[in-house]
Amino acid sequence: MVFKFNFALFLLAIITSSFSQNSDKRVEAQKWIETEIPKAFNSQLNPIETLTTVKYQKYKSDAINLDFDGGLSEADFHVKWKKEFNTKKAGIGLSFILGVQDYETVKVERARFVKKITPTSYLFLVSFSYSENSGTVAVQLIVEEHKNSFLISDVWQEN
Fold first, then answer.
1. Taking the chain, what is the end-to-end CA distance rounded to the nearest angstrom?
2. What is d(CA 3, CA 8) in angstroms, rounded to the nearest whole number?
3. Phi, psi for 109 (deg, rounded to 5)
4. CA distance 21 to 32
5. pLDDT tens, residue by residue, 19-56
């Protein structure tokens, strides 16, 4: 009887620890969004290079440069990336995250956790504001764990 009770407590401790670690990573991801995205935009750093995975950089570069000299056609873009990204939410022709090229002060107004996508990636609804703009921009960001930190692996923007 004591063995069963101790075993049950052991299992409960493992489950609680696992839940706590997942919750902690989600909270860490949210804090990363709230601090690192404004820091990158408000510095001389190139935000897309410092905040995102290499694969997302290539994907977004293709989306921004559609139909420009040497760029893909929209049909070719969808064929190239449809297995890895939801190309209907690529933000074709829009800049990274904000939708416009912006050199104003960027703030995260709100970052709300939506759901866990994979064991190491999280979907957030994030609202940004800029110092000289009266409106806000809301996008969905997928961040993934990367070397004791996080990187953006996708941004869902309407085309």
1. 62
2. 8
3. -80, -40
4. 16
5. 445 568 999 999 999 999 988 888 877 888 889 999 99
**Token duo for residue 56:** 């997302």
* Single-letter amino acid, residue 85: F
- Is pTM beyond 0.70? Reply is yes
Q: Which of 87, 79, 58, 108 is nearest to 159 (CA)?
A: 87
| Whole-angstrom distance, CA of residue 137 vs CA of residue 95 | 12
Chain-centre distance of CA 121, in angstroms? 9
DSSP string, 131-151: TT-SSEEEEEEEEEEETTEEE
Give backbone dihedrals phi and psi of 133, rounded to 5 degrees, phi first: -110, 140
pLDDT in tens, 99-138: 665 566 888 999 999 999 999 999 999 998 876 666 788 8
131 CB-side CA count, 13 A: 8
DSSP β-ladder status, 136-146 and 121-130: antiparallel
Output the DSSP codes for 45-85: S-HHHHHB-HHHHHHHHHHHTTTSTTPPPHHHHHHHHTTTS
Burial 71-99 (b: 16+ CB within 10 A, else e): ebebeebeeebeeebebebbbbebbbbbb
